[in-house]
Each structure stands twice: as structure tokens, then as C-alpha cells.
From TrEMBL:
One of its GO terms (biological process) is acetoin biosynthetic process. Pfam families: AAL_decarboxy. SUPFAM superfamilies: AF0104/ALDC/Ptd012-like. It catalyses: (2S)-2-acetolactate + H(+) = (R)-acetoin + CO2. It is an enzyme of class 4 (lyase). Its EC number is 4.1.1.5. It comes from marine sediment metagenome. One of its GO terms (molecular function) is acetolactate decarboxylase activity. Keywords: Acetoin biosynthesis, Decarboxylase, Lyase. Belongs to the alpha-acetolactate decarboxylase family. Pathway: Polyol metabolism; (R,R)-butane-2,3-diol biosynthesis; (R,R)-butane-2,3-diol from pyruvate: step 2/3. This is Alpha-acetolactate decarboxylase.
């Protein structure tokens, strides 16, 4: 199993919002994942070979293969472990529960959680115009969406702590409703009686952008605090 990534999360934090990789190209590397779109135009979630764009209106749209991404993470999802969670947990408790299921914190994991969710809170970022502001400024005006007693899927990854600067250390999850009409970047949840599938991934492959924006970006600064604000 290989985790494929286009660009780095620090480049995204620096405002490198335009990439060269199309979604048609991205699909060669996986059928499951998350990411965004050029101009930071919404949140991406990929499930079973289909990719969806959740725009700032909270609505999910099927992705056209010609669309491009400045940051995305995908894999071919093949679960190594499946569990049924029958107790009520919030997002923080869910992460602790998942951590206890994992054999090690030093490799990558793809995660898919399906069921009826008591509560889901998501966000989606509106498309940005040049000159692009830093991501930490963009999220100050992010639209928030709330769902109650909704059936759907949470999908994403858990990355090791040593990946900071490259990807998001810890959990990075997106959500989409069962009817594939709404979703976003997961901020909070309350769930019970869900099915959890975990794909252990020990190989990592990354392709970096070749454009001037990426070449000129200052990627040497420590951005952990910025990332915390952006992800939460």
C-alpha cells in the first residue's frame, strides 16, 4: 500500500494554491483520499474511485478530471482492520479510540468510518483570488456546516508526527453524506454504532510542483501553530 501526495501542506499554508496535477492524473495513484482544488476552491473527498468537490456553499459536486489540485493525498483503499464502534464518542475521543487500535504510530493509515452520525460539524473554504492570502487568514471567514442524525462517510488519514511540514501530523478527515450531496472538512462529530475500516500504509510517494510559486515559497519556517488554527 502506497500513500501518494501532491505537494506539501506547508506550501498550502504559504499560499501556493495552484498546482499542475489534474484529477485525471491523481486517480492513477488512488481511489480514496482528500485534498483541495486550485484557488483553494473547496474541500475534496474521494471514495471508491469517485472524487467530490464540496464548495463554500456546502454542496458536493462530482469532480471533472481536468480540474487541478495544489494539495491532495490518495491511496488505493484496502482495509487491514475493521471494527464496529458501539459507544458514543466525540471527535477527540474518536481519535483516542483509533490510536488504541493501531499497532504503531510510526506509519500512515487511511481511515473510513461509515454509519449514522448524531452530529457532524464541517467547513469548506471559499475560492480565493490572487494575490492569495495565507491559509491562516482564509480560514477566519470559513463557512461552517452542521448535520444532525445524518448517514454518511468520514474519510481521511492519520500521519506520523515526523511528517510535519509535509502533511498533517495526526488525523485529517473529511465527511460526505450518503447521498453525496453535502459535506466538508471535519471539525467535530458525535458518533455511535459506526463501522471503522483502517488501511495500514508503510510506503509514501510525493510529487512536488514545478511552478514558480512553489519554487519561491518560504518553506523553512515552523508552521505548527498555523496548521493547528487551520485544521481546527
Amino acid at each position: 500500500d502506497v500513500l501518494f501526495q501532491a505537494s506539501t501542506v506547508n506550501a498550502l499554508l504559504e499560499g501556493v494554491y495552484d498546482g499542475e496535477m489534474t484529477y485525471e492524473q491523481l486517480k492513477r495513484y488512488g481511489d480514496f483520499g482528500l485534498g483541495t482544488f486550485n484557488g483553494l476552491d473547496g474541500e475534496m473527498i474521494g471514495l471508491e474511485g469517485k472524487f467530490y468537490q464540496i464548495k463554500a456553499d456546502g454542496i458536493a459536486y462530482l469532480v471533472d478530471g481536468s480540474m487541478r489540485t495544489p494539495f491532495a493525498v490518495v491511496t488505493y483503499f484496502e482495509p487491514d482492520k475493521t471494527v464496529l464502534l458501539d459507544k458514543s464518542v466525540d471527535y477527540k475521543e474518536l481519535q483516542q479510540y483509533l490510536d488504541n487500535l493501531l499497532p504503531t504510530k510510526n506509519i500512515f493509515y487511511a481511515l473510513k468510518i461509515e454509519g449514522i452520525f448524531k452530529y457532524i460539524k464541517t467547513r469548506s473554504i471559499p475560492k480565493q483570488n490572487k494575490p492569495y492570502p495565507p491559509l491562516v487568514e482564509v480560514v477566519k471567514n470559513q463557512p461552517i456546516f452542521e448535520f444532525h442524525n445524518v448517514k454518511g462517510t468520514i474519510a481521511g488519514f492519520r500521519c506520523p508526527i515526523y511528517i510535519k511540514g509535509i502533511n498533517v501530523p495526526g488525523y485529517h478527515l473529511h465527511f460526505i453524506t450518503e447521498d453525496k450531496k453535502a459535506g466538508g472538512h471535519l471539525l467535530e462529530c458525535q458518533l455511535q454504532n459506526v463501522r471503522i475500516e483502517i488501511d495500514y500504509t508503510s510506503e509514501f510517494y510525493m510529487v512536488l510542483p514545478e511552478g514558480a510559486e512553489f519554487y519561491k515559497a518560504d518553506l523553512e519556517k515552523e508552521k505548527h501553530q498555523e496548521l493547528e488554527k487551520v485544521e481546527k
